[in-house]
Amino acid sequence: MAGVGDQLRKNLYLEQHNPEAAAAAGDSGKNFDDDGRVKRTGTWVTASAHIITAVIGSGVLSLAWAIAQLGWLVGPAVLLAFSFITYFTSTLLADCYRAPDSVTGKRNYTYMDVVKAHLGGRKVKLCGLAQYGNLIGVSIGYTITASISMVAVKRSNCFHKNGHNAECSTSNYPFMILFAGIEVILSQIPNFHKLSWLSIVAAVMSFAYASIGVGLSIARVAGGRHEGTSLTGVRVGVEVSGEEKVFRTFQAIGDIAFAYAYSTVLVEIQDTLRSTPPENKAMKRATFVGISTTSLFYILCGCVGYAAFGNNAPGNFLTGFGFYEPFWLIDFANVCIVVHLVGAYQVFCQPVYGFVEKWCSTKWPESKFITTEHLINLPFHGEYQLSYFRLIWRTAYVIVTAVIAMIFPFFNDFLGLLGAASFWPLTVYFPIEMYIARTKLPRFSFTWTWLKILSWACLVISIIAAAGSIQGLVQSVKTYKPFKNQQ
């Protein structure tokens, strides 16, 4: 058995650090793709699940607030506009996974690899800064958001027992620790290829809590308890001042734009797909299904939620207590949010894990601590390749993100600023620039011109959203009170 384990570790090392040698070794127990790595088995269905898990966050329940700031005319139009922009630029990015040819070219495993293959130079570093900064920020933000939903379950039961005016104050910190403990265990899933089951569960959970939110909103409207709405949203001089209206509009546009952004993990998702049909074709299908599904839920949650709560729509009507009853259904919805965020955390962390582990193995290729895999048998799982380096580094990452979440519980406002900084380069600029470089579009041609206009327009939107996020962050810092619920 020791000989088998040694051979397995050797094959794993070759796959990660010398794919060509792995293919030449001809391990009879495995099949390999054209790059020498273990054959990928993902399909457009599993890719769609990854996309839905990445795109639909608990922020879907805050879209009612966003629509309330924009009104019936602008709100749905902005939702549809960004769904189209995200789908279009994602299809451009899908064609860049292989280079120079989108079907037969060399594979690129990460977003940075794709940018390096098509653009090169300083743009690779810009891409890495935007991508990994955003991914780390999402990890911290999800820790905060999950704890808020956990607290909401406890508060919901307290309100049901003691009345809606009860104090029911609960600290978020124990729940952040609980969430981090779960993520420490799940972070030992080696890579994206082993994550499909978790993404499917998370995608189902996102459908569940979004459907509950829509259903409760419809029930509220049908029961005649809906609030006043307007074509232009919150009214200046009535609900908000002129300055507040401007910044809230900026923030709402930013919230909607960043609600669709999943380009930070698109290439890593595409790298899980099997080679037939061509990866770009399967990814475009998965993108269409994922974006269409999320757009439907976004419009339903945003518009029906706005109809139910009007211009006073809460930031999140499941954790901000837009609803109190039925309390058991609110509890279930918040549990679904937590389960979804458990999976989404892993989807967004895997590129960070992969980047650090690849860099370390390249930097210290002779280190047994970094490169050695230990074969162990786990109950109900079977054989598992344990890496002490992966165990320690990933555990440390989860702990650090949890500690930052505890220190800065208003970090969700800062996350909007991170999103503003990363949305334009990752979702719009790089896909367009790589398409232009790949197809060698003539400067000032019709297609080149309108692509550039689209890119510059989205840059302006990012700047506007950043301004709104900064204003919101300043207000959160001013009103922050330690040891209180950060709803």
From TrEMBL:
Any one of the GO BP annotations: auxin-activated signaling pathway
Domain Amino acid transporter transmembrane: 40-474
UniProt membrane topology term: Multi-pass membrane protein
Family annotation (InterPro entries): AA_transpt_TM
Localization per Swiss-Prot or TrEMBL: Cell membrane; Endomembrane system
Signal peptide annotation: none
Gene Ontology MF terms: symporter activity
Similarity comment: family membership: Belongs to the amino acid/polyamine transporter 2 family. Amino acid/auxin permease (AAAP) (TC 2.A.18.1) subfamily. Belongs to the amino acid/polyamine transporter 2 family. Amino acid/auxin permease (AAAP) (TC 2.A.18.2) subfamily.
Annotated protein name in UniProt: Amino acid permease 6-like
Native source organism of the sequence: Momordica charantia (Bitter gourd)
